[in-house]
Amino acid sequence: MGIFPQSIRWRIQLWYLLLLAVIIAALLAAFHRNQREIKYQVLDRELSNPITRLLPNLERRPESPPRGRRLPRPDLLEDFEDELRPGLEVGGRRSPRGPDPLERRRVNLDEIVEELAENGIFVIHWSRGGELRFASENSPEELRSFPDKVSREGDRVSKETVQGYREIIHASPNVGTLVVGASVKPIETYLSKLETKLIGVGFLIIVGGFLVGWFLIGRSLKPIEAISGAAHRIAEGNLSERIKISGNGSELGQLSMVLNETFEKLETSFEHQVRFTADASHEMRTPIAVILSKSQFALSKERSPEKYQEALQTCVDSAQHMRTLTSGLLELSKVDSGEFHLRPELGNLEDLTGEVVKLIEPLADDRGIKIKCNLRSMKAEFDPSKMRQALLNLLGNAVKYNREGGEIEVTLNKIGAEIFWSVQDTGPGIESVALKSIFERFYQVDKARTRTGRNGTGLGLPITKAIVEAHGGAISVVSEVGKGTTFQVKLPAG
Amino acid sequence: MRVLVVEDQDDLREVVVETLREESFAVDESADGEEGLYKALNWDYDIVVLDVMMPVMNGWEVLDGLRKEKQTPVLMLTALDQVCDKVKGLNHGADDYLAKPFDLTELVARVRAVMRRKGGDHCPEVTVGNVTINTTAKTLRLGDKEVEVTAREFAMAELLIKHRDEVVTRDFLYDHLFDENDESMSNMLDVYVYKLRQKFGKSFIKTRRGQGYIVESS
Fold first, then answer.
1. What 8-state DSSP symbol labels residue A41?
2. What is the mean pLDDT of residues B146-159?
3. Which of B12, B19, B23 to mutate against chain A (most A CBs within 10 Å)?
4. Gap between the Cα atoms of A131 and A145, Å rounded
5. Domain B2-119's class?
């Protein structure tokens, strides 16, 4: 199969690749997105954790220990306990825990920030009023201005990504606004590397898919190649070519079978056609040979008027024979091509038979043949000119192949729903071997017998048969050697 | 030269027979294979022109029957011109093959060619002594001078030259010069011999007393 996009193989291949590419792309994109989400979740967690540690160190110290005050968040309990304890100690006794709590907070904050900075996390803190209180050294300059959009009311935690930094913004009336953030650059770098890898993997899968697909499609298209190969060879004229069927169950196996049957019919009808043409041209050759040689003979030198007349007469006879032959051939070719149309009209078969008998009587008289009619009125629908031709053929044969002084009996009868019409002669009869082929084109029982009439074409009976069959009837023949032959036509009545 | 034409189509047979007669052949005819085979077996024809498609007995059967006994040259005449038919014909022992419809001139040329080949001559012109015969142009020359002869005289000269250096009997001459319908008396042969001797010299045809005539090439 040639490599061009019109071929089925390429088309299937391209569609398959397109589908594969879409699926792979969707899968990889989903995977990429998923990875991104996971990475951001991890980062968010990393950023959220320090908040809980930072908050206690940034909270405003209460003026007086609020009694029974509810803790803002349960997870801050420990730190609050720590802070609340001194306040709870009535009498202002210093805590046994060491230095001044404010001092301690400062140290704590620095430690935490430092620790965070090592991990690339920065911290920025604004007071409730939006005044920058604190910013770790690694915090980007552009983020140190107060984020206006952050609400200043109540405790609120939000996340956002700004200018390549991921931030967790914690706003509360107590602390002000705390931003813990980190650059997303490592994540993005990781993701872009992943993207490259995924594209590579996707590409490899598509290439692999292409190869596997090419192989599989090729395999499944093999029967089609066999079919097209066989069809090609048939088109080139080798009509006996057939497709080798592999796997009767498959669609292609069935197609092959159907095609083989078609080829079979094609071959038969072609052979039929070839034989018919050969026969036809063979039948034409003899009269042409006569005309050609007779006229050449007449013209080869000066001859008497009688000789010229005789030559011309022979040519006319041969030409007439050819005319009979060609009109017969034309008629049969109409039958073959399905252009043999009847023009049926209501009429009486008895009248038609009488008419034909009258036509043929002079010929019969010449040979001393008597025609007996055994007819009854029979109304039917038929094509009068075609039916006349059929009957004329049968009666003509009965005269031509009868013995001198013989008899012909024509019978027209109706039995049940069928009309029977028979022509019986007292000729020499036909042997059963010949009887089988009698309706075949160009078949002549014995050419010698036609010599008296010299116009046997071997087409009369096939045409008669075609006419009868076109009327929905059937023709049959019975013959006994030495006694005679009977042709019987059966037609549906009404 | 005597020819048998076996052809069932009356018009065609008539015209072939007449043409060959005009070419100064002695021609017999048959309308069917059976009669044709009978004649071919009972007479020594110089050539048989045989049709293939015939009633009673077709051309192949006639040819097979003939070949069992004789090597008479046969030219098959038929409406079939498929290669396989030609091959079949030649394999059956036919000497040549002509498909219908044919040109009468081609038929005559082929008949002559087949007879020439059978006689061992490949050229239509043969010289014996100072007499030259051309079977195609149908001329006889004495030296360089063309001599006018009748059809029968030509046929006799042709026959004797074809069988040169052989003694040709009067019966043989009679059989090959006159067809079955010819009522000519055998003493007509003496007339033709006399006339040929008059025209080409006494030594052209020698008489072998009690045997026949001979034309000697040297």
1. H
2. 88
3. B12
4. 9
5. alpha beta
Between CA B102 and CA A231 the distance in angstroms is 40
Among candidate residues A441, A453, A479, the one with its CA nearest the CA of residue A331? A441
pLDDT at B80 over 70: no
Q: Is the confidence metric ipTM above 0.85 for this complex?
A: no
Q: What is the pTM of this model?
A: 0.55
Chain A 415-454, CB below 8 Å of chain B: which residues? 446-449, 451, 454
CA distance B104 to chain A (A): 6
Nearest by CB to residue B9, choosing from A286, A297, A301, is A286
**Contact criterion met (CB below 8 Å) for B125 and B212:** no
Cα A256 from Cα A254, distance rounded (Å): 5
Positions of chain A with pLDDT lower than 50, given as ranges:
1-3, 63-71, 73-95, 448-454
- The pLDDT, as a whole number, for residue A211 is 92
User: Closest partner residue to B32 among A283, A297, A448, by Cβ?
Assistant: A448
- Per CB-CB distance under 8 Å, the chain B contacts of A290 are 9, 11-12, 15
Rounded to a whole number of angstroms, the distance from the CA of B173 to the nearest CA of chain A is 28
pLDDT of residue A154: 58
User: Where along chain B do the CATH 3.40.50.2300 domains lie?
Assistant: 2-119
Please say whether the structural domain B125-214 has been given the CATH code 3.60.20.40.
no
* Residue A239: predicted pLDDT: 78
Instruction: Tell me if A293 and B19 make a contact (CB, 8 A cut-off).
Output: yes
Residue A292 near chain B (CB below 8 Å): yes
Could you tell me the CA-to-CA distances from A217 to A144, A210, A220, B84 in Å, in that order?
63, 10, 5, 47
Q: What is the DSSP letter of B8?
A: S
What residue ranges of chain B are covered by domains with CATH 1.10.10.10?
125-214
Contacts with A291 from chain B: Cβ below 8 Å: 101
